[in-house]
Design a protein that fits this description.
133 residues, alpha+beta, five-stranded antiparallel sheet, 22% strand
Length: 133
């Protein structure tokens, strides 16, 4: 087991499959251990952005859409954690720092930009769990 697997095991034990029940358990753990609000950004392009980032779609349209949609390049304040959605991913309520717009984004798509942030490992481990288990 590597370090993130050990930390995930502490949270979920041997039953660490990605299920709605485990997502709810993970959410409870994060609510107790994260000091909200924290500053986050995207781990990679959000699903709506993919055709623009790697698919060659119109860049002017992309720039226009980024004004009303969250972008992985934006900086957000993570304000709250909602219940898991149908993808067993915790819903994060975030406020974009540049204009104050509020969005709901799946938590596995977010990370602390600052690796020195106390919450960096917590969010990174969650992303590892959600993606790999």
């Amino acid at each position: 087991m590597d370090d993130d697997d050990k930390r995930i095991h502490v949270i979920l034990g041997d039953d660490n499959e990605r299920t709605m029940q485990n997502s709810s358990r993970y959410r409870s753990y994060l609510l107790k251990n994260l000091s909200l609000p924290i500053i986050v950004t995207g781990t990679e392009d959000f699903p709506w952005e993919e055709p623009y980032v790697i698919g060659g779609w119109d860049q002017r349209e992309y720039e226009k859409l980024k004004k009303t949609n969250p972008s992985y390049r934006d900086t957000f304040e993570l304000q709250a954690l909602g219940p898991p959605n149908e993808h067993e991913d915790i819903i994060a309520r975030v406020k974009r720092l540049s204009d104050g717009r509020v969005f709901e984004i799946e938590l596995s798509w977010l990370c602390c930009d600052d690796k020195q942030c106390d919450s960096y490992v917590l969010l990174d481990d969650y992303g590892v769990w959600h993606t790999n288990y």
